[in-house]
Amino acid sequence: TVMLWLQNTREGSGQMDLGGSLSRQVEKDLPVTADMFSHIVNIGGMVERMENNIRGILETVYFGRTLTVLNDMRSLVDLESKKAHDKLNQGIADALKAKDRTSSN
Predict the structure, then answer these.
(1) SS3 readout for 80-92
(2) Residue 105: is its pLDDT beyond 70?
(3) Interior CA angle at 64 toward 1 and 71, to 5°?
(4) Element holding 25 (H helix, E strand)
């Protein structure tokens, strides 16, 4: 089980709280030799694989999703610039549609 808690209270970026836990369990049959350390080696390998798996899940689910949400909520461009950009995009789309209609006839 991994428990994650992040808190950001910087004045420039605002407040953000992110927390959660992630549990995983694995069972695997591995050969045990007469060497008394083979069991420890087998457990160590399983722990390392699970650690990498959980790290990847945390990166994807928690940090990736948080970045997506923050990018959707916060704009780096002021509202007037965004409106001008959207108007330009709409003008280009309209011009392309008109061109398609004239070339189809």
Answers:
(1) HHHHHHHHHHHHH
(2) no
(3) 140
(4) none
- Helix/strand/coil for 3: strand
Sign of CA dihedral 24, 28, 30, 32: positive
Distances (CA, A) of 45 to 14, 35, 36, 42: 41, 16, 16, 5
For residue 18, the tally of other CB atoms under 10 A from its CB is 14
Residue 19 in contact with residue 5, Cβ under 8 Å? yes
Q: What is the mean pLDDT of residues 58-67?
A: 80
d(CA 65, CA 20): 13
Rounded to two decimals, what is the model's pTM? 0.52
Return the HEC string of 33-70.
Answer: CCCCCHHHHHHHHHHHHHHHHHHHHHHHHHHHHHHHHH
